[in-house]
Amino acid sequence: MRRPSNVKKRKTFHEENSPGQKGISESDVCTSKPTALFAPTGGRSHTLSVAIPGSIVANAKSIEQKTLLVGIIARALAVFCVDEVVVFDDDGNSAQHDEYEQDYDYYDSPMARTNDQVNGTTPSKGYTAYSDPSHFLAHVLSYLETPPYLRKHLFPMHPNLRGAGLLPSLDMPHHLRANEWCDYREGIVISTVDHQKSRRGCNSNNYHHRNRRSNSPTSPPATVVDTGLSQKVVIPDIQLPEHARVTVRFSQQGPKHRAEPVHPSIPRSEAGYYWGYYVRRCRSLSSVFTESPFDGGYDLSFGTSERGAPLNTVLEEDGDEQRHHIHHNHTPEYKHLLVVFGGVAGIEAAIRYDPQLRDMAISPTDAGKLFDYWVNLLPGQGSRTIRTEEAVWLGLTGLRGLVEGTHRPKKSYRYNGSKAT
Fold first, then answer.
1. Which terminus of the chain, N or C, has fewer Cβ atoms within 10 Å?
2. Alpha carbon distance 254, 302 (integer Å)
3. Where do Basic residues bias regions lie (predicted)?
4. Quick check: 205 pLDDT over 60?
5. How many Å is the maximal CA-CA distance in the chain?
6. Residue 113 · residue 245 · CB < 8 Å
7. Which of 256, 251, 221 is closest to 239 using CA atoms?
C-alpha cells in the first residue's frame, strides 16, 4: 500500500523549529507521526530509581495479562525517564536457586552480557511467570529496554517473551533507527579481530580480512560492533567479549565511523540523554538499599502507602522563578532519588518477610521508618484499591516537579519514626 502523500516520515534529528514555534504554519504540522524527540540540555548527575515487587505479576491470571502489566510499567519508566528499576521479592515464596548470584548479570540490561550467560545460567523452562514472578518481571523489562535491533542477539527464545512483541514500543532515545544519528549508540560485539586467536570473519569489514593474512605478533587487536547502522563499527586497540552489549561514543559522522566504548551512564552524565533504565533484582526490600549501585546509596527515598501523608501536602514549590522556565536546566537538591511501591498487600508485606529487617526489630507497622517520606499518592480515591501499575504512573506524575527541580519536599514532613509531622 502506497504511503499517503500527506504523511511525513518520523523526524531523525532535532530541528530548530518544532510545532508550535514561530515560523511554522498549521499546514506544516503533521500530527499522524510522533514529533516529540528527547532534547538533552547538558550532563545530568542525578538519577531516578523505582522499586517494584515481583508479586504483582502473580496477581495477574493469564500470561497475556502478566505481560500487559509489565508493558504498562515499562511505559511509565520510559515516559518519566527512570534510570533504574529494582525488582524485589516481597512474598517469601520466590524461587531460591544456588545460581542466583551467578545469574545477576542477566538482569543488568545496560551492561555488557554474553549469550553464554543468558543461555547457560537461566534454564529455558526453570523460570516462568508462574514459578518466579520476579524473574518474569525483570526478564520482560530488560527485553523492552533493549533496542529492537539488539534483542535477537541478547534474548533467546523464551516462554516469558512470547507476548512481548505485542506490547507498545518504548521508543526511548537509545532505540535509534538505522537512519537516525546520535553521538552515542548501543551495540553488540559481533567479532573480535585478534590475529593470534580469532578465526571468525566479518563479511562487512574488509579491514578484518585484510589483517587476518598478517602473521605479525605485534598487530593490535580490534573489536567489530553492530550498532544498528548500515556499516559495522571497528573499535581499534581493544578486545571485548563476543556477543557483549556495549555503549559506544562516536567521534565523527560519516561512512567510516570512529567510536570508543564508554560506560552506559556516560550518555546521561556527560550529554544529558535519557539512556534507558537499568534493571536490578533483589531478594528482599532491605537489599534494595544495601545493594544500591550508587556511592553513598540513595540520599532521598519515598515509600508509598494509603497510610502515608498526602503527596500534594509534602511537596512545595521551590520559589525560584528562574528554574521554572525550562526544565532540566538545573540540578535538583538530591543526587539519587528512590521511590518504592508495594504489592497487593503493601510495603508492609515485604517487611514481614524480610529477615534482615526482622533482625533489626522493624515490624510492618514501622514501615515508614525505612524512608525519608511516607506518602499517600491519591487521598480520597474512588476505587477501594489502586493497582501497583496505576500507582507507578500516579507516583511518577506527582513527583515530576521534584525531579525537575520546581518543587521540593517539606522538611517538616520528613518521617520522624512515629508519624509524619
1. N
2. 46
3. 1-12
4. no
5. 75
6. yes
7. 221
pLDDT (tens digit per residue) in 1-13: 444 444 444 454 4
Side chain identity at 240, as an amino acid letter?
L
Q: Are 51 and 288 in contact (CB under 8 A)?
A: yes
Question: Domain 47-172+274-413 in CATH: superfamily?
Answer: SPOUT methyltransferase, trefoil knot domain (3.40.1280.10)
Q: Which of 14, 27, 39, 54 is nearest to 327 (CA)?
A: 39
User: For the whole model, what pTM was predicted?
Assistant: 0.80
Tens of pLDDT, residue by residue over 351-377, are 999 999 999 989 999 999 999 999 999
- Kindly list the distances between the CA atom of residue 365 and the CA atoms of 119, 242, 351, 370, in Å, as whole numbers in the listed order: 42, 50, 9, 11
User: Could you tell me which residue, 107 or 307, shows the higher pLDDT?
Assistant: 307
247/233 Cα distance (integer angstroms): 12
Please answer whether residues 312 and 380 qualify as being in contact, where contact means their C-beta atoms are separated by less than 8 angstroms. Answer: no
pLDDT at residue 105 tops 80 = no
Q: Tell whether the model's pLDDT for residue 328 goes beyond 50.
A: no
Which amino acid is it at 216?
S
In one-letter notation, the amino acid at residue 327 is H
Q: Where are the domains of the chain?
A: 47-172+274-413, 184-264
Residue located via cell numbers 516462568: 128
